[in-house]
Amino acid sequence: MLIHSICLRKSQVILMALLTVFSIFFWEYNKHPQGDQYSYFSQTKGSTMMNIQSQAGSIPQREIRHFAVYKQTRLALLVEDKPGVLISSASPAPGGPLKHPFVNAQAMDSRYENEMGSLLKQSSNFDEFIGLLIKHEYDIRSFDYLDLPKTLTAGYRIFAKEKLLAVIWKHRGQFSTLTQQPEKDDLIFDPATLTVYDAAYTNFFLKYLETSSDFEEILQKMKSDRLSIFEVAAHLQTN
């Protein structure tokens, strides 16, 4: 009887230990990014559109999106989401700039004009054009009326496994997504400029900026959440 009681107690201890290990594993699994979703921030999981919701409340959006486009570290293009003209960085075309039905754009670096022009021809709307630029390793920064650097250093693309989620630079600037761009004076952060490429993770990334005091802290929090961070210029060919 005594032996039976001891064995029973041992079995209970082993069972409790196994349950504890399972509970820890379950918590860690759900705490961090897994592939293309985050269960730790359940308010974003499964969403295809997430309104920007800062600690100060809802943020007014610009009626016309206005982006600066960078290739590696260099400013390549300024582009607006409206019908307009295409202005070359070279000499003005005879007869003036070409008109375009859905973008108003000014090339800023002649090295990339042919490639960007080809991508624009393949696009049927503004969002498709921006998507193709990102796919061809251009990166998007919210246009800042007071600060438009010709070069940006310390830039990083942020991935969850193979899924590209955002880009961040160690440069004062605005938080934005590709589909929702705050008014020019809203969501400006001293440590970093960040653009979210997947709108489902909007508030997930905004929280990093709102709760961090410097750029290194932001990167450390991302790494702690098992995000992969790659320097923009590190894996691109230098021209």
Structure in words:
- The chain has helices at 2-31, 113-121, 126-135, 202-210, 215-224; strands at residues 33-34, 37-38, 53-54, 57-58, 66-71, 74-80, 84-87, 98-100, 104-107, 138-142, 155-160, 163-169, 173-177, 188-189, 193-196, 228-231.
- It is an alpha+beta fold and 239 residues long.
- It has one domain (53-231).
- Strands 8-7-9-6-5-10 form a six-stranded mixed beta sheet, covered by helices on one side. It has a six-stranded mixed beta sheet with strand order 14-13-15-12-11-16, with helices on one face. It has a two-stranded antiparallel sheet with strand order 1-2.
- Strand 3 and strand 4 (57-58) form a beta hairpin.
- The longest helix has 30 residues, at 2-31.
- The radius of gyration is 23 Å and the shape is globular.
- 30% of the residues are buried.
Span between termini: 82 Å
Mean pLDDT: 81
Q: What is the makeup of the main sheet?
A: 6 strands, mixed
Number of structural units classed as domains: 1
Q: Helix fraction?
A: 25-40%
Helices, by number, come to: 5
Keywords:
alpha+beta; six-stranded mixed β-sheet; 5 helices; disordered C terminus
Q: Can you give me a brief rundown of this structure?
A:
This protein is an alpha+beta fold and 239 residues long. The protein is 28% helix and 27% strand.
Write the layout of secondary structure elements.
Layout: H1 2-31, E1 33-34, E2 37-38, E3 53-54, E4 57-58, E5 66-71, E6 74-80, E7 84-87, E8 98-100, E9 104-107, H2 113-121, H3 126-135, E10 138-142, E11 155-160, E12 163-169, E13 173-177, E14 188-189, E15 193-196, H4 202-210, H5 215-224, E16 228-231
Parallel strand pairs: 7-9, 13-15
Antiparallel strand pairs: 1-2, 3-4, 5-6, 5-10, 6-9, 7-8, 11-12, 11-16, 12-15, 13-14
